[in-house]
Write a structure and sequence with these properties.
By secondary structure, this protein is an alpha+beta fold. The chain contains 13 helices and 16 strands. The protein has helices spanning 15-28, 54-59, 62-65, 109-116, 126-133, 135-144, 157-162, 164-174, 198-209, 253-257, 273-289, 325-332, 337-356; strands at residues 2-9, 34-41, 47-49, 68-73, 78-82, 88-90, 95-98, 152-156, 179-183, 193-195, 214-219, 223-232, 237-245, 264-266, 294-303, 309-315. A seven-stranded mixed sheet has the order 6-5-4-3-2-1-7. A five-stranded antiparallel sheet has the order 14-13-12-15-16. A four-stranded antiparallel sheet has the order 8-11-9-10. A hairpin with a 5-residue loop joins strand 2 (34-41) and strand 3 (47-49). The protein binds adenosine-5'-diphosphate (ADP) and magnesium ion (MG). The site of adenosine-5'-diphosphate (ADP) has 19 residues, from strand 9, strand 12 and strand 16.
Length: 358
């Protein structure tokens, strides 16, 4: 039996989202094949083993019940589970499945830990996770390859503070309002503001800077939002295309998770067949360019006026509840939710074995 460690929670603004995704994933895992080890990470970064029901993961009350801390033990190439009261029981997990969104989970950091302690894991490796998490770097890599993206500018908060007036002029020269101001390294729309005036632009830069000193400013596109799922290592498969119809002015944090289901997912998206193919082909290229493996969700904008397709971003650990876009896109292609999880595990083993055979 494979001891499958599912990691959830984490030190990011997307802590709650991770709890929802992980509870859903754990419920669906085939318990006759996998022994699930539920590994919770608190917002403060403490690791715990939690062996209670998934309802408590979803509600967040697992933190009160958790009994043991977990620490990396590089000498033993394992994760060491430290019992309470000084007892130390060492337990190995065979495979790690991080269902963590945002910084310290989706950004290459925890992937680096898995590499260090030499256990196979699900999803992208260090480079893929780090590149897709960093909006500025991802944009630069995709731009070099000629993938279509909207107009943008990147800067650090430090640069902005040093020459604010000059930069404001440069931004307004290059981009027109409305603009989107984003921390380079975040997710779930946390820290993102849509701005229509210079006054708001300045405030939005301060807001973004709470999350990252590197800041991305994009021209706002009057767009439809289209997403596709990618699955695989070297020759990835791409699902069909779905559309998000946000309940708010844009797909912000609240609209994503707390609007009581008013944002709608439409699968398949009602767009021309050639647009579907264009999106699928850009998704596959971006996935490989950004060194993704396992699985990811690629997000696009379709300009309402011109019909032009623009790559927005790739999420290396997309939302994974049963009602999330990524699993629903695969269900439409005939891959059921539990099978999707199995595929992700076997792709993780495939990458691990390929690396070890080199
Ligand atoms: N340039 C843009 N034009 C129009 N809408 C945008 C733009 N950038 C972001 N948005 C809106 O904000 C949402 C979140 O932005 P995104 O870059 O996808 O960040 P996150 O990584 O937090 O999901 C998008 O889903 C979209 O609704
Ligand atoms: Mg997004």
């Amino acid at each position: 039996m494979i001891r499958l460690g599912v990691l959830f929670g984490g030190r990011s603004g997307e802590h709650e989202i991770s709890l929802m995704s992980a509870a859903s994933v754990i419920n669906a895992i085939d318990k006759s094949k996998y022994e699930v080890v539920q590994i919770g990470i608190t917002r403060e970064g403490h690791w715990y083993i939690f062996d209670g029901p998934t309802e408590q993961i979803e509600s967040g009350s697992w933190e009160q019940e958790a009994k043991a801390a977990l620490a990396a033990d590089p000498e033993k190439y394992s994760l060491q589970i430290l019992g309470t009261g000084g007892a130390s029981l060492k337990q190995r997990i065979d495979f790690a499945l991080p269902i963590l969104h945002g910084p310290y989970g989706e950004d290459g950091t925890i992937q680096g830990l898995f590499e260090m302690i030499d256990i196979p894991y699900g999803g992208s490796g260090v480079t893929g996770a780090a590149l897709t998490m960093d909006k500025i770097l991802a944009k630069a890599v995709c731009e070099k390859a000629g993938l279509p993206q909207g107009p943008y500018m990147a800067m650090t908060k430090h640069e902005f503070d040093e020459r604010e007036q000059q930069l404001l002029l440069e931004i307004e020269e290059k981009l027109s309002y409305p603009m989107f101001v984003k921390p380079s390294n975040m997710g779930s729309s946390v820290g993102i503001t849509k701005v229509k005036t210079r006054e708001d632009l300045k405030k939005a830069i301060d807001t973004a800077a709470i999350y990252d000193h590197r800041i991305l400013i994009e021209e706002g596109i009057d767009c439809r939002e289209l997403e596709t799922g990618v699955l695989g290592n070297r020759d990835p498969q791409v699902s069909g295309v779905g559309e998000i119809i946000p309940s708010a002015e844009f797909y912000d944090y609240k609209a994503k998770y707390f609007d009581g289901g008013q944002s709608k997912l439409c699968i398949p998206a009602d767009i021309p067949a050639e647009k579907v193919e264009e999106i699928r082909s850009i998704a596959a290229r971006a996935y490989s360019l950004l060194d993704c493996s396992g699985y990811a969700r690629a997000d696009f904008f379709m300009d309402r006026r011109t019909g032009k397709i623009l790559l927005n971003e790739i999420n290396s650990i997309p939302g994974f509840t049963k009602f999330s876009m990524f699993p629903l896109l695969w269900e439409e292609k005939g891959i059921a939710y539990p099978d999707l999880i199995e595929r992700i595990v076997s792709l993780g083993y495939e990458r691990y074995n390929a690396k070890n055979s080199r």
